[in-house]
Amino acid sequence: MKLIRQGISLQWLIGGAMFCAMLLLSTLLVIQNYQNNKNALLVATAESAKQLSDTLNEKAKRLTGPAQSALQILSYDPLLTAKTLEARQQRLPVLFETLDSNDVLSAIYAGYSTGEFFLLRKLNNQVMLRKFDAPENTAFLLQTLSLRPDGIGQGMKKIWFFYDKNQNLLSKINKPDYEYDPRTRDWFNRALESEDQILTSPYLFFSTREIGITLAKRGHNTQNTIGMDASVTDLAAQIAMLKLTSGSELVAVDEKNNILAHADTEKMIVQEDKYYRMNTLEELESPVLRMISEDNLAANELKRFNTKDQEWYGLWIPITGLSEQNIKVLLAIPSNELLANAKDIILNQTLWTIVVILMLLLLGLYGGARIGRAFRQLTEQVRALSGFDFSSQVQIRSDIKEAKELSRVVGNMSRTIDSFQAISLCLNRENDLEKMLDGVLENLVTATGMSTGAIYLYQPEKHHFSLTSTTVETGFPEVLTEQGQDDSSILHHTLEQLETPKNSLVISLRKRDNSLEGLLVMHWKKAPKNKKALIRFVSELAGSAAVAIETRRLIDGQKELIEGILHLLADAIDAKSPYTSGHCERVPQLALQLIDTLSEQTEGRFADFSLSTQDKEAFRIAAWLHDCGKILSPEHVIDKATRLETIFNRIHEIRTRFEVLWRDAEIHYWQQRAAGEPEDELKIELEQRQQQLQAQFYLIAKANEGAESTSADAAAQIHEIGDQTWLRHFDNTLGLAHEELTRLLKTPQPTLPAKEKLLEDKPEHIMSWDEKRRPPVESNNPDNIWGFDMQLPEYSVNFGERYNLTIPFGTLTNEERFKINEHIVHTIIMLSTLPLPDHLKRIPEIAGNHHERTDGQGYPRKLLSHEMAPEEKVMAVADIFEALTASDRPYKKPKTVSESLSIMVNMSLNGHIDSELLSTLLQAKSFSGYANEFLSEEQNDKVDYPALIEQLNTPQP
C-alpha cells in the first residue's frame, strides 16, 4: 500500500508489466511440464516394475523346472530300492551328473522308511569346505546313514565320503555324532502322502545355512522318497536388479514376512544363541517397506509414502513362478531420486525461463527508461533536495517542454539553497574575517543571481567605508564616504559614488544595537522581475551577515585582549624580579620552535605526533602561562641572594650587634683604665678582642653569601660565635604591627636590660601553617583535587638566624625552597579555575608539568614518563635550556649552547628529562634557531651534536 501511495515509476511499470506477464506464463508452463514429466516417470517406473516381475517369474520357473524333471526321473531310479550302502553307491554317477547339470541344486538325497539316509552335496566354496572339515580339492560330500549288515551292532552306520570334481574318492570318515532321521522331516512325510511332487516353502537349510526350497517325491512303488535342495541365491540376485536408484530399498518376503532376499545378505539370517533363523520384515529397520507390506496395494501399483524424514514411492511385485508359494518383492524408491530427472528438466527450463524473463525485463526497462528518463531525472533531483542535498545538478535531456522548464526551476532552487548552506557554513566555521566575507559574498551573489558584489566595513574614526571583500578586481571604489547614518542617506550618497547606480543594490549592514557595521553593494546585469521581494530577501540575509561580522570582530577583539593579558602577565612576572627577567617571554619562543620540530618527524617514536591548529594554540598559551603562579610567590624569596635576607638583608642587624660588642670592648677598656689597670695590657686585650670580632663577623658574612656549602665544622663555629651575649636595654615589643606583636608576646619577655645571644633561633622567627591557607599539596590532603604529591615543610616560615646561616648549600631554607616550587602549584590551581573551552582544557597540564621528571622525582605530582604528554616534556626542555642560557640574571653567569646541551644530556641520563625527546631535538638541531635570535655570539658556540647524541644513547652502567 505504501508503494502504491508513492506511485510507480513509468520505467518500472512497463518493465514490470512485461516481467509479470512472462513470469505468470512461464510459471504455468513449468508447473504443467513438471506434472507431466512426473506422471510419465511414475508410469514408466510402474511399467518397469511389471516387466521385472514377469522376468522374475520366468526366472523362478526356470529355477524349478529342470529340478522337477530330474526329480521325476530319479523317482524311478534303483537308488530308492537299493538295500545296502554299496548298492546305493553304485547310483552315485547319476547323482553326480544331476548336480553338475543343475546349478541351482545344492544337494540330492534319498530317505528310506527304515530311517536310512543317503545324501550327495556340492561343496563349491571355502565356507562349505571349512564347515564340513573337508580335505583339499573336495567337490562333493556323500553323507550316509545305513543299517549295519546282518544286524550286527546297534544303531546306524554313519559314514561320510569326500570326492573331488572328477568323482574320485579322497577320504571317508565315520561320523558317530551325525544325527538325522528323514522320517521326522516335513518334506518326507508330505511326499509319502502325495502322488505328485511337493515343493516346500523357502526355509533355512540345516547344514549350509542358506535359504532355499526342497523338492521331493515318493519313489515308484516304494515307501522311500527322493529329494533335492534348490538355493534361491540366483533368484535373490535377480531381485537385487530391481534396485532402480542408489537409495532404493527392496526385499523379498514370503507370506509370513520372512526375508528371502535382500541387498545386504547379512540382514537375511539372525542368530539366536546357537541356532540360526530367517530374519523378518518387522525386524528390518525400514519403516517404508513395512508401510508397503501393510498397505492394501494391488500388485505393481505405485503409491506415495511419507516417513518422518523423506518421501517415497513404493510397490510390491508377486513371484508366482514357484508354484503355490506366496512370495512378493517390496520395492521403495526415494521421491527425490525417482523424480531427479524431472526436476533437472524443470531446473533447466526454469533457468531458460529466467534468462528470457530477464531479457524481456531489460527490454521493458530500456523502453520505460527511454520514455520516462526525464521524469526520473527530475524525481532524483527533487529527492536530493528533500534529502537536504542541494549540490546535485541534473541536466534533463528531454523533448518534453514542461520537463525542461521544471528542471530549470528546480536547478535554480537547488543552487540557491546550496548557496544558503554555504553562507551559513562560512558564517559558523570560518575564523578569519576577510575569508568569511569573501565566502559569504560569493555565495550571496550566486544565490541572488547577481553579477558582482562587494562588502564595505565602516571605519568610524575616518567616517568612511573601506572595501573589504569583492567578487571582481575592478568596478568598485576602494573607499565610500559617509554622509549620514540613516538608510536613505546612505543609499542616496552611495549610489552617487558607484559607476552603474541604476544596476546597483545597496544594503546597510547593522549591528544588534542598530549601529552601522558596513555596506553590501551588488550589481545585476538584468533587473529582477520582483525587485522589492529581492531587496527584502537580501536585507534579511545581510542582517545575518552583519551579526556574524559583529560576532567575529568581538571574537577577534577578545583574542587580542587575551593575548594582551598573556603578555601583560608574563611581563609583570619578568619585571617582578631581575632573577627571572625575560624568562616568561623567551620560553614560549623556544617551546614553539621545539614543538614544531617534533611535529615534523616522519620516523621514530614521534612519527605519529602532530598538533592541530587548536592544539598548537593551547600549547602556545600554556607556554606563556607556564610560570603564572610566580605572581603569588614572595618577592623576597625569589630574589633572596643571601641566607639572612628576608624583606631586607639581616646581615646589617647582625653587624650592628657586632658593633655593640665592639663598643662593649672599648667601654670595658676605658672602664679598666679608669680603675687604674695597666694601659699596655688593656690596649693589647682590646686589640685582640676587636680582631676576634672582625674575624668572626667576616666568617658570618661569608656564610651569609651562601656561595659555598656549609660543613659541620663551619656550622659548629657559627653556633660558637652566636653564643656570645649582649645587653638589650630597649623594649622590643614597641613599634610593631599587631600580627608581629601577637606572635612575639606568645613567649615570656625578659626583664630589661636583657641579655641576648649574638645569633639566635627565636620562637618568633617561626611561623606555623595557617590551616585555612595550608597549601593542599600532600597526596593525602582531601582538598588536593589536582593530584599533587609534594612534601610540605613543618613550618610556613623559619627566620631563625642560626637556622638560615647553617643552610647546607645555597641561600634558601626548605621553607623558602618550597615557596619557590609552590609557584607551579599556584600555576595549576589558577589555570584550573579558568572556564577554558574544550580545545584549551589541557593548558593546566601543559603549563604545570614542566618541573616533572621522567623518573617520577619531579614536582608537584611526581609523574612518570609515560604519564606525561610530549607537549609537557617539551615545556620542561624549553624551561631548562632558557634558564641555563639566560644572560640577564644577576646571580649567575650564562652558559653557552654546548655547555647547556651537555648539562641537559647529563640531566636526561639522570632521569630528569626524556632522552628520546632530547635525542630527536638534537638530531634536528632545534636549539640553533633560538640561539641565533636570543643569545650572544660568545654563547652561541659550536656544538658537537654527534657526540652528544652518542653520549645520550650509550647505555649507562
UniProtKB/TrEMBL annotation:
Pfam annotation, one family: HD_5
GO MF term (any one): phosphoric diester hydrolase activity
Record's keyword annotation contains Ion transport: no
InterPro entries found in the cross-reference section: GAF-like_dom_sf, HD/PDEase_dom, HD_GYP_dom
Annotated HD-GYP domain residues: 734-936
Keyword annotations from UniProtKB, A to Z: Membrane, Transmembrane, Transmembrane helix
The keyword Transport belongs to this UniProt entry's keyword annotation: no
Top-rank lineage group of the source organism: Bacteria
Bilayer-spanning residue ranges: 12-31, 351-369
Matching PROSITE patterns: HD_GYP
Entries under SMART domains matching the protein: HDc
Name of the molecule in the record: HD-GYP domain-containing protein
Organism: Oceanospirillum linum
Lineage of producing organism: Bacteria, Pseudomonadati, Pseudomonadota, Gammaproteobacteria, Oceanospirillales
